[in-house]
Amino acid sequence: MTPSIFVFIPIAFIGAIVLQVLLSKKENRWIGFILPAISFIGFSFIIVIEIIQTNTVLYSTMVDGETVLQTIAQMNSKPINIVRYIYIFFLYNIPTVILLAIYFVCRSKRNKQRALDKMIAQDLE
Predict the structure, then answer these.
(1) Does residue 125 lie within any of the structural domains?
(2) Which of 61, 60, 44 is nearest to 52 (CA)?
(3) 102, 110 contact by CB (below 8 A)
(4) Which residue range(s) make up the domain with 97?
(5) Considering its fold, how many domains does the chain have in total?
């Protein structure tokens, strides 16, 4: 890997955290779920599906002078493979959990501030 990737990854991670904080503080509560949803769908499902698909073996045979690619599924239901896929699924969900934690912390602070503002408004009446 080039040295520039070591600079890009932390900057992208910090940028995602800052963006998540900004989205979580918005009035519409659903906007704060955009990055966790992208992380969940993008990292978890797509990576696990890619890993499952790489467990197929391609081989070529000659049929009537033409090369034909065929696949043999190597996926079997061994418990070791299933545990491995579950482990990878949870491992790639760590960014999703971090983004959701940021969302819930920001929303709880926002809700506390709204309750305090309501209480002050009632006291002024």
Answers:
(1) no
(2) 44
(3) no
(4) 3-117
(5) 1
